[in-house]
Design brief:
Length: 216
């Protein structure tokens, strides 16, 4: 794993700086491709950013189900947002993504999602969200750099969805003492199990949060 995003849910303070910064990306200016999730609204202030995890193995589910072959996965492992000249707005990627990341603009009939700020990261710059995060909940760099800055930190980049193991190019910090060779439980309870905070069932199911704009 080279330079990538590492999410540390325990550091998130829900400030929304990442959401605002994401709107400034030139490829989707005005639209935020990051989800800031509140894990137990009304019972806790715990929050966590959700970015595209850039699934590696097997083929990224969103790309695998795209009937127009609009979602490109480049050799460096970045799963790009849909090619606007090919996307048909069918929503297959929204339903296939286990993390609930892609969004559909109903008016434009196009998909949008995090592409790791490829216009920046391909030139060695950090993604917009990581540059503005005041607590380091969104870290961009190598694992060696992370461990130098935060001694003893452990991360995971595999997730278990009812026996289906997905490896990702983006990693997540896990609590001390958790076995690092075991995949994190995926699905609706993923963040809750990582942070220890309860959350409603169906948290990552496609919802209105995955829709941009108004229906035609």
């Amino acid at each position: 794993m080279g330079r990538t995003i590492v999410i540390d849910p325990g550091r998130c303070i829900g400030c929304q700086a990442c959401v605002s910064a994401c709107r400034e990306c030139d490829s989707h200016r005005g639209k935020s491709m990051i989800h800031l999730d509140y894990l137990d609204q009304g019972g806790s202030v715990a929050s966590s950013p959700t970015v595209c995890m850039h699934c590696e193995d097997p083929v990224a589910p969103c790309a695998q189900v795209c009937p127009a072959e609009a979602i490109l996965v480049t050799p460096d492992g970045v799963v790009h947002d849909a090619d606007k000249s090919r996307c048909i707005g069918c929503g297959n990627c929204v339903n296939a993504c286990p993390m609930g990341v892609p969004k559909i603009d109903l008016a434009a009939k196009l998909q949008f999602k995090c592409n790791l700020c490829y216009d920046r990261t391909s030139y060695g710059l950090a993604p917009m969200c990581a540059t503005v995060c005041p607590t380091g909940s969104i870290f961009y760099g190598t694992l060696e750099e992370l461990r130098t800055e935060r001694p003893g930190v452990e991360v995971a980049s595999t997730f278990d969805f009812d026996g289906s193991i997905i490896s990702t190019g983006v990693a997540m910090v896990v609590p001390r003492g958790r076995p690092v060779d075991e995949p994190l439980p995926g699905g609706a309870g993923e963040h809750a199990r990582v942070t220890g905070s309860p959350q409603p069932a169906g948290h990552l199911e496609p919802s209105a949060d995955n829709v941009l704009g108004e229906p035609l």
